[in-house]
Design a protein that fits this description.
Elements: E1 4-9, H1 14-25, E2 30-37, E3 48-52, H2 55-58, H3 61-78, E4 83-87, H4 89-103, E5 106-110, H5 122-129, E6 133-135, H6 139-147, E7 155-156, E8 174-179, H7 188-201, E9 207-210, H8 216-225, E10 232-236, H9 242-246, E11 248-252, H10 262-269, E12 274-277, H11 282-285, E13 293-295, H12 300-312, H13 314-331, H14 337-348
Parallel strand pairs: 1-2, 1-4, 2-3, 4-5, 5-6, 6-7, 8-9, 8-11, 9-10, 11-12, 12-13
Helix pairs in contact: 1-14, 7-12
Length: 352
């Protein structure tokens, strides 16, 4: 298919969204993308047309979502659209599915979360089976969905665009770092409890948490209740995280669900080992005790044990650090803008 016009429902953070759509916009086969989002993004491209929800509706969830659907209907009635696309299953892929069915269009999904989190949802499995193309974060997600009956030949794995940053060799100030949203999916109580366990061995352990979200104050209160105020520093959302990563010894994540977290790649690219849960597509890149540590349980003792190993064993730390950096360097070519543009071009042309 050539001269493709895409109606796109998306709602992830601006930085992440730009990284997802810029390669699509740069393909030769795409003519226009009509983006529907709650607010405008500070990114311009000749092929990108943005539609947003008026501020009067953004604070009222039902009106906000209804407005996005109405905008989608308007675009489908007034513009030439070949494909309706959603980024993230709930609710964007659902919107794309229903409008594509009503208007007789092809639909494409980009699943940036772990599909296992919707385990048992027969409706979602049904709509995935009818997609013309599905992008997922890795082989584990693909394997899981194929086992649910979704055709294997409609999948592809577009990586995130990534360029290895320059290592500045900054002084290590923090033992452990977290970077991300303060939301239920990230299981930050487990993260805080892991630091509490580490404090038993290292009374002066220093940890830092970057980010914010709906659970920020709950986590802040938990830190206070566990008397970890001198051990865990909260600095909110930061635009430049690389300096914080370089000043940290270990990156720790305790999420219940993930696609593949970019912060793990950022940490590995700066020689900072990661301790991660075995969820989503993490094991596609991080191999336990080779270039990081992958934890199979949900117990703080098990996460703490792996962090402690990195803090105490210099040889282990240096080996994991070196292997992590090599992993990212080996992947760098496939994560270049040009490579991802070609991948999207090749797959979009297959949509019939």
């Amino acid at each position: 298919m050539k001269n493709i016009n895409i109606l796109l429902f998306a709602g992830c953070g601006e930085k992440k969204l730009i990284s997802k759509i810029s390669p699509i916009l740069d393909t030769e086969c795409v003519e226009n993308i009509y983006l529907i989002r709650n607010s405008l993004i500070t990114f311009s491209h000749p092929k990108l047309k943005q539609y947003y929800v008026p501020k009067i509706f953004t604070g009222i969830l039902p009106l906000r979502e209804l407005t996005r659907i109405i905008i989608g209907i308007y675009i489908l009635m007034t513009k030439k659209v070949n494909i309706v696309m959603g980024i993230h299953i709930i609710m964007h892929c659902v919107y794309a599915y229903f409008l594509s069915k009503i208007f007789g269009k092809k639909y494409v999904f980009l699943i940036i979360e772990s599909p296992q989190k919707y385990n048992g949802n027969k409706f979602l499995t049904k709509i995935l089976k009818g997609a013309s193309l599905i992008g997922v974060r890795g082989e584990n997600s693909k394997k899981y969905l194929v086992e649910q009956g979704v055709p294997e030949d409609i999948f592809f794995c577009p990586p995130n665009e990534f360029e290895i940053p320059k290592i500045q060799e900054l002084e290590k100030i923090y033992d452990v770092i977290y970077i991300g949203n303060f939301v239920e999916q990230k299981d930050l109580p487990l993260w805080v409890n892991t630091i509490s366990k580490l404090k038993d061995t290292y009374p002066n352990i220093r940890a830092i948490m970057l980010g914010d979200g709906v659970l920020y104050h709950e986590i802040k209160n938990m830190i206070k209740d566990l008397e970890l105020g001198k051990n865990i520093e909260l600095v909110g959302r930061q635009s430049d995280v690389y300096g914080y990563i370089e000043r940290s010894k270990v990156h720790l994540m305790t999420s219940k669900s993930e696609g593949f977290p970019m912060v793990a790649m950022e940490s590995m690219s700066l020689g900072v080992p990661s301790v991660l849960p075995n969820v989503g597509d993490i094991s596609d890149v991080v191999k336990n005790n080779e270039n990081g540590f992958v934890v199979n349980s949900r117990e703080p003792e098990d996460f703490a044990k792996n962090v402690q190993l990195l803090l105490e064993k210099k040889e282990t730390y240096e080996r994991i650090s070196k292997n992590g950096l090599k992993t990212i360097k080996d992947m760098e070519k496939d994560m270049s803008h040009g490579s991802i543009v070609k991948l999207w071009e090749d797959n979009l042309k297959k949509v019939k």
